[in-house]
Design brief:
Blueprint: H1 4-14, H2 16-36, E1 43-48, H3 54-60, E2 65-72, H4 75-84, E3 89-92, E4 104-110, H5 119-129, E5 131-141, H6 153-157, H7 167-176, E6 180-187, E7 196-202
Parallel strand pairs: 1-2, 1-4, 2-3, 4-5
Antiparallel strand pairs: 5-7, 6-7
């Protein structure tokens, strides 16, 4: 069994990262629309766990996006992001320790939080140090208690740790970090697949 960072590094080398991006595309487009659709002022974004940078590149094409940057723990992913987007801003770092030079309006994250043994600490760190007053966090999670097809992913992928929380526990975790207007919804449910759990919350303005 390997850490998620080691496995993701291998996926960057094998090309699996590109298949992941395609698989998550619709959910991410939905999430981005939730936090940008009603905005009429320029905004800045951080993609937490950016992988090969595909979401950063998508965001930077938006008219009102002043700057999107990505941070990821897997060096191979960041190297690939920089190769695909030499002008982009990408950094390899531990998300629990890293702080942006300037806080941003939006933090987006897809399929990252449950790989941490203490996701509550990560949400608190983002709320405290990454977001401006009034800034918004949006996170997509496919591995959660109600989504039973995801329960065997750790063993299937040889990943040493995944934190399995119920939807209500994720909501409580966002609330405990001091985020306001915390909401959860599910996107793309079909059959036994419960959908991507989308969580949002806002720092006090």
């Amino acid at each position: 069994m390997k850490s998620a960072i080691e496995v993701f590094g291998e996926w960057a080398q094998s090309g699996r990262d590109e298949r992941m991006a395609q698989g998550h595309l619709l959910a991410v487009q939905h999430m981005i629309s939730l936090v940008t659709l009603e905005r009429d002022q320029p905004f800045t974004v951080i993609d937490a766990g950016c992988g090969n940078g595909w979401v950063v590149r998508m965001l930077n094409k938006m008219e009102l996006c002043l700057q999107a940057e990505g941070v990821d723990g897997a060096l191979e992913m960041i190297e690939k992001a920089k190769k695909l987007d030499p002008e982009g801003r990408y950094e390899c770092a531990d998300l629990l320790a890293w702080r942006p030079v300037c806080p941003v309006d939006i933090v987006h994250s897809m399929e990252v939080f449950y790989y941490f043994k203490d996701p509550a600490a990560l949400v608190q760190h983002i709320a405290n140090h990454w977001l401006k007053p009034g800034g918004q966090l949006i996170a997509g999670v496919d591995h959660y208690l109600e989504n039973t097809p995801s329960h065997n992913w750790a063993s299937e992928n040889g990943i040493s740790h995944m934190t399995t929380l119920a939807e209500s526990e994720w909501v409580a975790l966002f609330n405990a970090a001091g985020l306001n207007d915390v909401q959860s919804s599910r996107f793309g449910a079909k059959g036994s697949w419960a959908g991507t759990l989308v969580l949002t919350g806002q720092v006090e303005g």
